[in-house]
Amino acid sequence: MLERDFLEFINENRLFGSADRVLLAVSGGLDSMVMTHLFHQIRQPIAIAHVNFGLRGDDSDGDARFVQNKAQQYGVPFHLTHFDTVAEAHKRGISIQMVARDLRYDWFAQLVQQEGYACVATAHHQNDVLETLLLNLVRGTGLAGLHGIAIRQNNLIRPLWFATRDELEIYAQEQGLQWREDSSNAEDKYVRNRLRHHVVPVLMSMNPSLFKTLPQTIGKLRAAETLMREELERSWQNVARISDDRVLLASDALQNLTEPVFRLAEWLKPYGFSIDQTAQMWQALRHQPGQVFQSATHRITHEREGLLLTPLSESADYYLTLDRLPDEPLDVEGRFSLTFNGFEKPTDFRPPTDAATVCFDADRLHWPLTIRPWQQGDRFRPLGLNGHKLVSDLLNDQKVSRPDRERTAVLLSDNQIAWVIGRRLDHRFRVTAETKRIVQVSMQ
């Protein structure tokens, strides 16, 4: 019965082909020994991999020998590795369970690449699915966490997903299979064990058909998540204004959405923002612009039009000098480029109206010229004004966003700002009636 269900489950979910070599993750416990036996029964090409985490002394070494002997009995390739799991957990600053999981899956991935296996099979079953669902629920989760354990994740498969542990144990006894008992499974040291020993039995007493209804419940949750993702994508298209490496989430469009905080949290999760931050962003939209939220890689700035998402700028620490007019466009740290052109002043000269292009009186420029990021305290004399002005005040007046402020640079002649690049020419370097030669600079 179990063999038939096993084969039907594999075929229904198209987990692998009949000629594929499958790498089995085998601990030596009941679940993995049943899985190994089932693969042997259907004559699937397999290899066995075992990880000795060194957590139980002689028992861990005994598990490794047991699994190796079984691989020899089945006549299949055997892979073994050892880890100092405790030392690695201290080194990484995470729990032993988490580091053990990372270590074994990283090793499995290496074996797949080196040996050409089609996939890795683990012996997770319905009880594991339920325990993972409950564990995620306790820790706090969205719909994805309520799936429990997926049947397939890339090249990782769970061919026993359909079965309960009781069914596996009955089958093992019927087939006279041997396995190793992990003594730690009987302890309440780990949260998963406490769920297994104390919570699941209560749920089973409330609903004896729990494991029959669980796949249906998970199927409904997956369907609900699919619909949710489709709606999130649709509303993202309506809200997001994308330009190069920045995204503006328009406040007027956000205001018309249901559950805006949830949508923001889902949209911004890949950029490292937390649910608490997104709740604060939503509150910020009710107040004056200017508030900033930051993750490890990105920044959200509350602008007048909405929430502006940009990557964190790299350190703006550069200082370029020019001894003469460059023949080719000048790249400024990958942020923008400047094209220089010198010519005699034409009789019908008209100054450019676009702030991205300026014309200097060539005789007023003193070489070398310098290009650097603007700094707090920088002053210049804006074109058409008598007095001086702080560059910071100019940026405030022009309502320049924080990311664009960080990208703003200045061009200096004799340590005097001749141009706030792309924004305003200094009055002292303008073209006048007496100008004979012009240096024109355009920013791209």
From TrEMBL:
<dbReference type="Pfam" id="PF01171">
    <property type="entry name" value="ATP_bind_3"/>
</dbReference>
<dbReference type="InterPro" id="IPR012795">
    <property type="entry name" value="tRNA_Ile_lys_synt_N"/>
</dbReference>
<feature type="domain" description="Lysidine-tRNA(Ile) synthetase C-terminal">
    <location>
        <begin position="369"/>
        <end position="441"/>
    </location>
</feature>
<keyword id="KW-0067">ATP-binding</keyword>
<keyword id="KW-0547">Nucleotide-binding</keyword>
<keyword id="KW-0819">tRNA processing</keyword>
<dbReference type="InterPro" id="IPR011063">
    <property type="entry name" value="TilS/TtcA_N"/>
</dbReference>
<comment type="similarity">
    <text>Belongs to the tRNA(Ile)-lysidine synthase family.</text>
</comment>
<dbReference type="GO" id="GO:0032267">
    <property type="term" value="F:tRNA(Ile)-lysidine synthase activity"/>
</dbReference>
<protein>
    <recommendedName>
        <fullName>tRNA(Ile)-lysidine synthase</fullName>
        <ecNumber>6.3.4.19</ecNumber>
    </recommendedName>
</protein>
<feature type="binding site">
    <location>
        <begin position="27"/>
        <end position="32"/>
    </location>
    <ligand>
        <name>ATP</name>
    </ligand>
</feature>
<dbReference type="GO" id="GO:0005737">
    <property type="term" value="C:cytoplasm"/>
</dbReference>
<dbReference type="InterPro" id="IPR012796">
    <property type="entry name" value="Lysidine-tRNA-synth_C"/>
</dbReference>
<keyword id="KW-0436">Ligase</keyword>
<keyword id="KW-0963">Cytoplasm</keyword>
<dbReference type="Pfam" id="PF11734">
    <property type="entry name" value="TilS_C"/>
</dbReference>
<dbReference type="GO" id="GO:0006400">
    <property type="term" value="P:tRNA modification"/>
</dbReference>
<dbReference type="InterPro" id="IPR012094">
    <property type="entry name" value="tRNA_Ile_lys_synt"/>
</dbReference>
<comment type="function">
    <text>Ligates lysine onto the cytidine present at position 34 of the AUA codon-specific tRNA(Ile) that contains the anticodon CAU, in an ATP-dependent manner. Cytidine is converted to lysidine, thus changing the amino acid specificity of the tRNA from methionine to isoleucine.</text>
</comment>
<dbReference type="GO" id="GO:0005524">
    <property type="term" value="F:ATP binding"/>
</dbReference>
<dbReference type="InterPro" id="IPR014729">
    <property type="entry name" value="Rossmann-like_a/b/a_fold"/>
</dbReference>
